[in-house]
Amino acid sequence: MNNQSYAIAEIAGDQVILEPGKNVSIPKVDLEVGAQFIADKILFLHSGADIKVGRPYLSDVTIETIVLEHRRADKVMVFKKKRRKGYQVKKGHRQPYTVLKVGEFGENTAKPAKVAPARKSRAKAKTAAQPAESATQENKE
């Protein structure tokens, strides 16, 4: 954070510090190498003497990044053992991650508003014909 501007953003469930021109590792995202990724969940922005704090996110700021590569972290060994039972299991795991190159910070003034989809009611709508039908069925019996 030696640079004068930096931001804290939420990307793929992790909070990362973004500085212009730096590379950052995040959990793997399904994008091709060279594709542009726009971080729009900005929690905090420090730009020179200006500081902005989101509640929870800043709606007018976006940060453009470019996918540089996909990698896998160092192997983590997991060893399980139950004493005196002859049970031993040794497993390894390598977590995939994506490396992004952070571009310049931008002001997003023309962001389209997100509209929530209309929820369908699960309750059946009663019409005047339904009670009449049930009454006629009772008379027939």
Explain the overall architecture.
By secondary structure, this protein is mainly β. It is built from one helix and ten strands. A four-stranded antiparallel sheet has the order 2-1-5-6, with no helix packed on it. The chain is extended, with a radius of gyration of 27 Å. Residues 109-116 have low confidence and may be disordered.
Shape: extended
Q: Give the % helix.
A: under 10%
Radius of gyration: 27 Å
β-strand number:
10
Order of helices and strands: EEEEEEEEEEH
Major beta sheet summary: 4 strands, antiparallel
Q: Average pLDDT, to the nearest integer?
A: 83
What is the CA–CA distance across the termini?
Answer: 82 Å
Instruction: Determine the strand fraction and express it as a percent band.
Output: over 45%
Uncertain stretches: 109-116
Instruction: Kindly name the structural category.
Output: mainly beta
> With helices defined by DSSP (H or I, 4 residues minimum), what is the helix count?
1
- Strand ordering within the main sheet: 2-1-5-6
